[in-house]
Amino acid sequence: MKLGYTILYVKNVSETLNFFTKAFGLEKKFLHESGDYGELSTGDTTLAFASFELAESNGVGFVSNKGSRPCSEMEIALVTKDVDSAFHRAISEGAINVVSPVVKPWGQAVAYVREPDGFLVEICSPIEG
Asked: Are both 70 and 128 inside the same structural domain?
């Protein structure tokens, strides 16, 4: 078995795909004609988004991740060699600063933002090793 998809439930799939392409430079892979499901090209594991309505039609319930609520107990980690530039690009496209770029004791650069649907996104450099 292998991890194939990470699917996040969002209000508007098309808007979320557009945000991720602008803020993080990811390529849109697929958007279903219904607008209820879309994917980004992210490597071996697909980052996908499904509408609240699609989740509910599948019998899936969830708690909103937006507003003043704390971040959910998960994150999306995007790896880049230039964390500072990626962080500033995300902020300029509407992401909310959670933790500005820092270098961890093991040498990895890390920053955290919240994207418009409220999900926590870690922007980090590869771990050399």
From this structure: yes
Q: What pTM does this model have?
A: 0.91
Cα torsion through 81, 107, 116, 89, rounded to 10? -40
Number of domains in the chain: 2
Q: Which residues contact 128 (CB under 8 A, 6 or more apart)?
A: 107
pLDDT in tens, the chain (129 residues): 999 999 999 999 999 999 999 999 999 999 999 999 999 999 888 999 999 899 889 888 777 777 667 777 889 999 999 999 999 999 999 999 999 999 999 999 999 999 999 999 999 999 976
Q: Give φ, ψ of 24 to 5 degrees.
A: -120, 0
Domain hosting 36: range is 1-62
CA dihedral 24, 30, 31, 32 (to 10 degrees): -160
